[in-house]
Design goal:
A three-stranded parallel sheet has the order 1-2-3. Strands 4-5 form a two-stranded antiparallel ribbon. Strands 6-7 form a two-stranded antiparallel ribbon. 5% of the residues are buried. The longest helix has 90 residues. It has three domains: 97 residues, Rossmann fold, CATH 3.40.50; 88 residues; 34 residues, no CATH class. With 276 residues, the protein is mainly alpha-helical. A hairpin with a 5-residue loop joins strand 4 and strand 5. This is AIG1-type G domain-containing protein. InterPro entries: P-loop_NTPase.
């Protein structure tokens, strides 16, 4: 629905009320508010436009359409290649794409044909009534002819009203079908989102478990290596024999001491201590 960028008028409110009466409240889910005749400031600064150009009635109107709104840039101010124009038209395109189950050309064509058919029948009935009136007036007189004409007109109007109600019903049924499909899609998306959350939670738990197991393995390997290292070294209380034949503890060794390191073929071998 196109709206001039000014205060929400009584005529616009009545138009919305007629749409809701004709198509039902659910039809607003398939509509977008498009503002025209916007100033440069309003077009380029959307927050400014909302804050200073919308009264409470306008806000309620836009909210009733799911807060879907866009600005149609003034072509005199914004040529086709202007980035602001491209951005605003892109906003409108995104809203159109986001409306699942929107009216299609095929649906509009079906509604148009049904309206044209009802109008055709109404015209034919009027021509038929007039022809019968002229014939009855010639044969029975004007009083009787008028009585028959009024009776036939009332019957034709009743049929036309039934056709109009059926036309509205077809439109509402089609819209409700689209709304139900949208509701099903939302429900499926909600379910998919919950499943995705569960999968993410499970993957997170598996990752945390793998990290814990990795940390524990690395810790065990470090402890094992440290233990092996300790086993391959002498303790400070270990006693060793110096080349002089003196027996002392490892803690008493000094740099330069020569200690017994091996006995090969009955001959003692000594090694010098270079670093403690």
């Amino acid at each position: 629905m196109f709206i001039e960028a000014k205060r929400f008028t009584i005529e616009q409110k009545e138009m919305v009320d007629r749409i809701k009466l004709f198509l039902g409240d659910g039809s607003l889910q398939y509509m977008i508010s498009v503002f025209s005749h916007c100033s440069r400031k309003q077009t380029e600064d959307l927050e400014y436009f909302k804050k200073f150009s919308w009264n409470p009635e306008m806000k309620a109107f836009v909210n009733s359409m799911g807060n879907r709104w866009a600005i149609s840039p003034n072509p005199e101010n914004y040529p086709p290649n202007n980035p602001v124009r491209k951005q605003r038209l892109g906003d409108l395109q995104n809203h159109i794409v986001s409306i699942d189950g929107k009216y299609t050309n095929e649906f509009f064509e079906k509604v148009r044909k049904e309206q044209e058919e009802n109008e055709r029948k109404t015209r034919e009935e009027e021509v038929k009534r007039q022809k019968e009136y002229d014939e009855n007036k010639r044969r029975e007189g004007e009083a009787i002819a008028r009585k028959i004409y009024d009776r036939n007109r009332a019957e034709d109007e009743r049929k036309a009203e039934e056709r109009r109600k059926m036309e509205i019903k077809h439109i509402k049924d089609a819209l409700l079908g689209q709304i139900n499909k949208l509701g099903e899609k939302v429900a499926n998306l909600t379910k998919d989102n919950e499943n995705l959350k569960e999968k993410v939670a499970n993957l997170t738990k598996e990752h945390e478990k793998a990290e814990r197991e990795k940390t524990e393995r690395e810790k065990a390997e470090c402890e094992k290596a440290e233990h092996k290292k300790n086993q391959s070294c002498f303790g400070l209380e270990t006693q060793v024999e110096l080349e002089s034949g003196r027996i002392i503890q490892m803690s008493e060794l000094e740099t330069g001491d020569r200690v017994l390191s091996n006995i090969r073929n009955g001959i003692a071998e000594y090694s010098e201590i270079y670093l403690i």
